[in-house]
Amino acid sequence: DAKTTQPNSMESNEEEPVHLPCNHSTISGTDYIHWYRQLPSQGPEYVIHGLTSNVNNRMASLAIAEDRKSSTLILHRATLRDAAVYYCIGRGGTSYGKLTFGQGTILTVHP
Amino acid sequence: DAGITQSPRYKITETGRQVTLMCHQTWSHSYMFWYRQDLGHGLRLIYYSAAADITDKGEVPDGYVVSRSKTENFPLTLESATRSQTSVYFCASSGPGQPQHFGDGTRLSIL
Question: How does pLDDT run across B20-67, given as a tens digit for each residue?
């Protein structure tokens, strides 16, 4: 799996967009970028994943740099419920789905 | 209801005792995983399974035993619990190439 680097923490205000960065300079051409988040006292939950192009779903958008050495998770309008630890994971297609979690980014959302 | 359930949610035991944590999923996912989460270490993979009767070690397997006689169940056993195994344990499941779905975790304290 590719090594990823994320800021330890970020803050946002409610209803404002949030851009969570992730560096993955050692990523291989077949590694997908996955994002999970973990709300307090809960297990992680899947947010989004992508390979080369930008991806959107009901929860968030994922912007992947052209050289694939970095990506950004975008929450378009943060809510208090989005306060969580966000994990960026680079996972190879042949790893049987195993995920290697780093420390993640603690997102605080202010009312 | 469909989903992944872990039991018990909380467990206190003593060193040297055998403890089994249960994980049950209703999606018929082929892959199942056990992680532990400790402060300062994030989530670490203990064991995983690609199908019934197929299991393999993750990052921190020592002191743990798993089995998978049925697709829907993936119990984790601590054969002789030690204080260092005090942690929050998460079970997850996924289909091939699909995101992982996590349970709510088991908080295990070993006195």
Answer: 999 999 999 999 999 999 987 789 999 999 999 999 999 899 999 999
Write out chain A residues lying below 8 Å of B50, CB-based. Answer: 96
Q: Give the residue among B31, B33, B16 at the shortest CA–CA distance from B80.
A: B16
> For chain A, give me the number of helices (H) and strands (E)?
0, 9
Residues of B in contact with A43 (CB under 8 A): 90, 92, 102-105
Would you call B94 an interface residue with chain A, using a CB distance cutoff of 8 Å? Answer: yes
Q: How far is CA B85 from CA A104, B19, B110, in A?
A: 22, 11, 7
pLDDT tens track for A1-52: 668 899 999 999 999 999 999 998 888 888 889 999 999 989 999 999 998 8
A77 closest CA partner among A2, A12, A9, A7: A12
